[in-house]
Automatic annotation (TrEMBL):
Signal peptide: none annotated. Residues 22-424 form the Amidase domain. This is Amidase. Belongs to the amidase family. InterPro entries: Amidase (IPR000120), Amidase_dom (IPR023631), AS_sf (IPR036928). GO terms for molecular function: catalytic activity. It comes from the Bacteria.
């Protein structure tokens, strides 16, 4: 089993491991496995080698939280010399000279940026493919790695890199993390401050994908520029845990996806926490508000793009989004009503546990060739539990709990009130201690 990110960084800080040798091993794994896996859109082998050598020579190496750790970033942020493409051939071309602030923070922490990972066009879908490849689940390659941070999840789940960056506007970190057996964190609104904080009307934020809670916490602390978030402390006092497998609109959830919630709840009850089988009042307006933002959010990203080159499904999606914007149907008051109900719920509970996803994962295929409707139906069935917490701006994360009959991992989602990222991380660490999980897919590394 490959070392964790925290183990690698500790060895580099102590002078026991060479970042260049670590990167050489990483590039070898990518070269041998990613042809089938499809996790990377581009690998920065030469540039990364220079970065690894620079980390080795840094005089402050002993203070770097991610010293020499190979990290993949999602294809939505600028990396020196490469503009983000958002999974599209329609994105404006050109060369950027500056890193995105997220990439700059990773580099400052000693991370080595190995490459950029595959996403669906404009990050709209929970399946990550483009004309050049399909991001496959490393646990069962017949299934998708998820989306829109699917390439990042595939790379970490296969053990190609120990950490990857993602973004989450409706579940795009948590869904692929759950499918690939990983820890994925969506911090609360404003925790990671950066220029594009208004992306998808404030719902989207950056987050880590990792194989352990400690690794995810360290990366979150770097992304947020908050060293305190790297400290993992299990709860010392009993928490009020709510558990619910009822999604908005009451759609059915398969028993295999409900059972891990019961398992997590039993473990936490045995650990001294109180349980309440209840869930928040989602209401009818919450799904409507989420749908409006799902359609309209990508419209802003695609401003100035060559729309004639966009995929057919994307053109239809953006047309609906523009119509909603013209009609004034993206309204802050609908988000605020849901936020108020969520805050009311968390007056009586500390953490909510739900399934991370609600239906069998889609197969791995070239979804970009299919119609909008054929993409939308599996997407909407799959992802009802994650989006409400983007709309509310609450922190949420997923941790592995089980696998399906077909070997695909199943995660549970943990949600808390704003400002409680540390509490979520601590509770996730308790589940990791009690339940444990294999960190990468069987037979990949």
């Amino acid at each position: 089993m490959n070392p964790t990110a925290t183990e690698l960084a500790a060895r580099v800080r102590a002078g026991e491991s060479d970042p260049v040798r670590i990167l050489e091993d990483t590039l070898a794994r990518i070269g041998s496995a990613d042809g089938e896996l499809g996790s990377f859109r581009a690998v920065r082998a030469e540039s990364a080698m220079s970065e690894a050598a620079a980390v080795r020579d840094r005089t402050d190496r002993g203070d770097l939280p991610l010293a020499g750790v190979p990290v993949a970033v999602k294809d939505v942020v600028a990396v020196d010399g490469r503009t983000p493409l958002w999974g599209s051939d329609a994105a404006p071309s050109g060369v950027v000279t500056d890193d995105h602030v997220i990439v700059a923070r990773l580099r400052a922490a000693g991370a080595v940026i190995v490459g950029v990972t595959r996403v669906p066009e404009l990050c709209i879908w929970p399946m990550s493919d483009d004309p050049d490849g399909v991001a496959r689940n490393p646990w069962n390659a017949a299934y998708t790695a998820g989306g829109s941070s699917g390439g990042s999840a595939a790379a970490v789940g296969a053990g190609l890199v120990p950490l990857a960056h993602g973004t989450d506007g409706l579940g795009s970190v948590r869904l692929p993390a759950a499918l690939c057996g990983l820890v994925g964190i969506k911090p609360g609104a404003g925790v990671i401050a950066e220029e594009e904080a208004s992306s998808w009307f404030g719902m989207s934020t950056h987050g880590p994908l990792a194989t352990t809670v400690a690794d995810a916490a360290v990366m979150l602390s770097v992304l947020a520029d908050r060293p305190d978030l790297a400290e993992v402390h299990e709860p010392v006092s009993p928490l009020r845990i709510a558990m619910s497998t009822r999604p908005p609109l009451g759609m059915p959830v398969a028993r295999a996806l409900r059972a891990p919630v019961d398992s997590a709840a039993r473990l936490l009850a045995d650990d001294g926490h109180s349980l309440d089988r209840t869930g928040p009042r989602y209401g009818l307006t919450t799904p409507c508000a989420l749908l409006a933002r799902w359609f309209a959010g990508p419209v802003r990203t695609a401003t100035g793009w060559d729309h004639a080159v966009l995929q057919r499904r994307t053109r239809r999606h953006l047309a609906a989004g523009r119509a909603l914007l013209r009609a004034g149907l993206v309204r802050e008051r609908t988000a605020q009503r849901w936020r108020d109900r969520a805050l009311e719920f968390f007056e009586h509970h500390d953490v909510l546990i739900t399934p991370t996803y609600a239906a069998s994962p889609p197969r791995a295929r070239q979804w970009h060739r299919a119609s909008w409707l054929r993409n939308a139906l599996p997407a909407l069935r799959f992802a009802p539990f994650t989006g409400p917490w983007n709309l509310a701006g609450f922190p949420a994360m997923t941790v592995p709990m089980a696998t399906t009959r077909r070997g695909v991992p199943v995660g549970v989602q943990l949600v808390a009130r704003p400002g409680d990222e540390a509490r979520l991380i601590g509770l996730a660490a308790a589940l990791e201690r009690m339940n444990g999980w294999r960190r990468t897919a069987v037979g990949v590394t």
